[in-house]
Automatic annotation (TrEMBL):
Domain 6-phosphogluconate dehydrogenase NADP-binding: from-to ranges: 4-163
Stored InterPro entries: 6-PGluconate_DH-like_C_sf, 6PGD_dom2, 6PGDH_NADP-bd, HIBADH-like_NADP-bd, HIBADH-related, NAD(P)-bd_dom_sf
UniProt keyword Cell membrane present: no
Positions of the 3-hydroxyisobutyrate dehydrogenase-like NAD-binding domain: 166-286
Protein name stated in the entry: NAD(P)-dependent oxidoreductase
UniProt entry keywords in alphabetical sequence: NAD, Oxidoreductase
Organism: Bradyrhizobium zhanjiangense
Classification via PANTHER family: 3-HYDROXYISOBUTYRATE DEHYDROGENASE-LIKE 1, MITOCHONDRIAL-RELATED
Length: 292
């Protein structure tokens, strides 16, 4: 017996996740501010909702996949939000990457209303979302996690309860810090290889066979080398994540000099109009620095 899902935020990631929930046999009511996104999901078998409260109607679980903390807060605390109109299943899961502090506040406010809240950010990009192969890192109460797990299984392959409320976001921020610095390292290697006259596609292939191999080099390397923009994971969203990483680290007095350095390069990319482009556009910061 499959469940009823309310799903809020059907952008780059959400639309793929909704498709996989439908494929797994769940009924999905979708809400997004973007009409075109809604129309696409409805075509694939989802039902259109008019608000978060409407998406929660008869739902066992409501899942959100929104850009940033304020969007998730609006979804919870807004006039037609989930705090006033929780799903009958009393379970809300946010899979966006947002502030762990905000997550714990939402968790506490919903708990008072008898509703469980799980933070369950993901890694794996749009391709991982499309292939139902996301890594899902969840924070919150064990019983609520167990309730959400069958739905996670429709969207991901590595599903881990990492701790109490907010812990999912903390693990995701660690993930993002590595991704950002790794993309920067790849940019530097490509800039050096290019200046030396090495074939960059060959360079990438060799590196993937050795100890410098990484997801970023594999997935983003080709578009970096070709100078292609393609959205995927936007520069703006990575800047949001690097800001969250630094806020979190400052509150705990953990210095992150590498994160600070790469953040300044992402700021540079956005200042040059790259905010809506994919993370591979960080390479153009190196184009400018090397006058390419
Ligand atoms: P996106 O911008 O493509 O999608 C977000 C969707 O939310 C859009 O369709 C937008 O219209 C909708 N939206 C915004 N505000 C809303 C509101 N108040 N109510 C309803 N809908 C609203 O973003 P994305 O790339 O799908 O990323 C979503 C989240 O997942 C972000 O937190 C991001 O950091 C994280 N994430 C993204 C990737 C990736 O590779 N794109 C990977 C892992 C995690």
């Amino acid at each position: 017996d499959k469940g009823n899902v309310g799903f809020i935020g059907i952008g780059t990631m959400g639309r793929e996740m909704v498709r996989n929930l439908l494929v797994a046999g769940h009924a999905v009511r979708v809400f997004d501010l973007n009409e075109a996104a809604l129309a696409d999901s409805v075509k694939e078998g989802a039902t259109r909702a008019k608000s978060p409260a409407d998406a929660a109607q008869s739902a066992d679980i409501v899942i959100s996949m929104l850009p940033d903390t304020p969007h998730v807060e609006a979804n919870i605390y807004g006039e037609h939000g989930l705090l006033k109109s929780p799903p009958p299943g009393k379970l809300i899961v946010d899979m966006s990457t947002i502030s762990p502090v905000a997550v714990r506040r939402i968790h506490a406010d919903l708990q008072k209303a008898g509703v469980s809240f799980i933070d369950a950010p993901v890694s794996g990009g749009p391709v991982g979302a499309k292939n139902a192969a996301l890594s899902i890192m969840a924070g919150g109460d064990a019983a609520a996690f167990a309730q959400a797990e069958p739905f996670f299984r429709a969207m991901g392959t590595t599903i881990t309860h990492v701790g109490a409320s907010g812990a999912g976001q903390t693990v995701k921020l660690c993930n993002q810090l590595i991704c950002g610095i790794n993309i920067q390292a790849i940019c530097e290697a490509l800039a050096l290889g290019r200046a030396s006259g090495v074939d960059l596609n060959l360079l990438r292939r060799v590196l993937l066979g050795g100890s410098a191999a990484s997801w970023m080099l594999d997935k983003l390397g080709p578009s970096m080398i070709a100078g292609e923009d393609g959205a995927g994971f936007r520069i703006d969203l990575m800047l949001k994540d690097l800001r969250l990483v630094q806020e979190h680290a400052q509150a705990l007095n953990v210095p992150l000099p590498g994160t600070a350095l790469v953040t300044s390069q992402y700021v540079d990319a956005r200042a040059h109009g790259e905010g809506s482009n994919g993370n591979q556009a960080l390479f153009r910061v190196y184009d400018r620095m090397t006058n390419q």
